[in-house]
Amino acid sequence: MAKKNDSGQKPVLVSGATGYLAGRLIPLLLESGRRVRAMGRFSEKMADRPWASHPNLETARADIRDFASLEKAMKGCGAVFHLVHSMSLTRNRLKKDRVAARHMARAAARVGAERIIYLGGLGDVSGKRAGAHLRSRHEAGDILRQGPVPATLLRAAMILGSGGAAFEIIQFLAERRKTIPVPGWADAPLQPISIANVLFYLKECLDHPETAGRAFDIGGPDRTTFRDLIGIFADAAGLPRPRMVRVPFLPPWLWALFIHLSTPVPAVMARPILEGLAVPAVCRERDIQKLIPQRLIGCREAMDRALDKIRKQEVETRWADAGRMNRPQWLDAPSSGRAEFQCGYRADLKGDPLSLWRAAAGLGGETGYYAGDVLWKIRGLMDLLAGGFGLGRGRRSPSALHAGDALDFWRVLESSPPSRIVLLAEMKVPGEAVLEIDIKPVRSRRLRLSLLARFAPRGAAGAAYWFALYPFHQYLFTNMIKGMARAAGLEMVSRPRKFAPKPGRTTPRRPGPKPHPSMRR
Fold this sequence. Notes:
Layout: E1 12-14, H1 22-31, E2 36-40, H2 43-47, E3 57-61, H3 67-74, E4 79-82, H4 91-111, E5 115-121, H5 132-145, E6 151-156, E7 159-160, H6 165-176, E8 179-183, E9 193-194, H7 195-205, E10 215-218, H8 226-237, E11 243-247, H9 252-262, H10 267-275, H11 287-291, H12 299-311, E12 341-350, H13 353-361, H14 373-385, E13 406-407, E14 410-416, E15 420-425, E16 431-443, E17 446-457, H15 459-488, E18 491-492, E19 497-499
Parallel strand pairs: 1-2, 1-4, 2-3, 4-5, 5-6, 6-10, 7-9, 8-11
Antiparallel strand pairs: 12-17, 12-18, 12-19, 13-14, 14-15, 15-16, 16-17
Helix pairs in contact: 3-4, 4-5, 6-8, 8-12, 9-10, 13-15
Organism: uncultured Desulfobacteraceae bacterium
Pfam families: DUF2867, NAD_binding_10
InterPro entries: DUF2867 (IPR021295), NAD(P)-bd_dom (IPR016040), NAD(P)-bd_dom_sf (IPR036291), NAD(P)-dependent_oxidoreduct (IPR051783)
């Protein structure tokens, strides 16, 4: 933990701190004068968030499914926000969500927390059409309510806001498809709610103790359908409305695959959202408005607000922010015995280092990769067809880059302005791949820009993959360096040249014997 505050006020624990919802709730709580303890699995991601340096913020590294770390992180907290859930439909993941809820209820009781606030899903789960994800959200809420610590449950349908998975499904379908298949089972009424309204309810629950121990349905003022939401977005964006084709027999998995190929949202995340459209998701009561009144934002205004944030490049968080950030051990352990291939190019440039940093940090998304766009698009398509993200995931901001950000089919491992960027490939590859971008001053007004690809193959397929792509590295890297120099307005002092990689890491080698446990530290 870090940044302790001497105030007598107990801190509020926010789990999933770098996720889509928690990442927006934390600054609101801080602005209201509360002490906040942000909890997440990856310290590097939390440390690189805009709110990380706030004097009223503490950070705690913990996994909600690891009871010991959760209890330690929760000690001394008065209230707890449970904002973590899985979007996978595997039995193992859904079981972990139930375990996480039990851990949360038990840990809160052990440390003497006064209340838990949980955001669940809205929808009827009594029928056969209810999806596994919605049932899991309801089960988690029931577990919390049955626990010894009073729990407030807010049940929401689709949340509309820039950067949200549901919003981006609607956005990219409207922008990219003239004709959209819609299954007959997906016409159930729903009552979407703006992200601004959700955050207000969550924040205000802390100041309304009468909400403790109760469950509330939350929704916006409009009742609509998924197909109507696509039309509303098209109107807001000034686009022609896509043609909706009703398909009677379109199973959820196949529709999710269509979404995967048409939007940045992968099928594994799209399917739970789409299955939720099969059951009515409308508020059965509006008691929350009597206790916490606010102006509810309609669907069209929510779309307008989201589009305005996108245009102004002010999207605070995105659904992709919640991805894992596991730095491969072999990156920092040359003696690990893991086979590794490397290929690097560098050149000396003359000009402003900040301009070069802005060009490097603007890599990907709509900017592209400064060279070989066709090759990158082909690689992205191959990844998409293999079940990966492809290039469609884009990036949260066209200019800002933070550790943990998703960037096309990369994850940002390190962003250290104005000198270093490390990207971990999340594309489908037979191994682990990393791209390192380094900017170093070599003398007055002279800089050295280096691009280094590092790859740890998995078996013979990994080695074959590396050698198949190796001929393209010279073309891509030399022209990427030239493209970055042009974008930054810098003068090329020397042409890009291949440089020797780090010693001893150019060819695969057989791992040495593992040390005896007594020799390990």
